[in-house]
């Protein structure tokens, strides 16, 4: 159990986030939207107001971006969105794969786009959606994946900008989330 917490105010909701070490120097306030209906709905409603009008398709990477992009698509009346997966499944034909590194996962990960989703993004203007943008590694990998698939990234959106991402001008976010020193 964490003994430090960060009180986050975003999109009209307040959540007490546990501060947990990710290595011996760095700690993060864990922000998990999975299962939190109120937070997902309110954050999606706030982000939808700032979606670039030229957006043709939204894309997220599994896992935590999925409920958010689903609710955004629902509010916008968009019948489809695409999900970059973290592993190749038996039902994927000719998937496109890129490497990804994230602050919350040790070692390398991959991002995979399956054929139906490749067809959805090819030749289209793509908005990337995620729960948190932190080191930027995941959003960069997602961007690389979309470009490989023949899509054009026209925007990047997340609920929170964490750490250095707070200074980025190329992302739209609702609030900032600080990083913390590890406590040993
Ligand atoms: N603070 C955080 N909580 C949960 N997932 C994250 N991914 C990047 N930063 C995160």
Structural write-up:
By secondary structure, the chain is of the alpha/beta class. The chain has a single domain, classed as Rossmann fold (3-Layer(aba) Sandwich), CATH 3.40.50.2020. Helices cover 23% and strands 39% of the residues. Strands 5-4-8-9-10 form a five-stranded parallel β-sheet, sandwiched between helices. A four-stranded antiparallel β-sheet has the order 1-2-3-11. Strands 6-7 form a two-stranded antiparallel sheet. Strand 6 and strand 7 (105-113) form a beta hairpin. Helix 1 packs across helix 2. The radius of gyration is 16 Å and the shape is globular. The structure holds adenine. Residues 28-31, 103-104, 132, 134, 162, 177 line the site of adenine (ADE). Residues 41-165 form the Phosphoribosyltransferase domain.
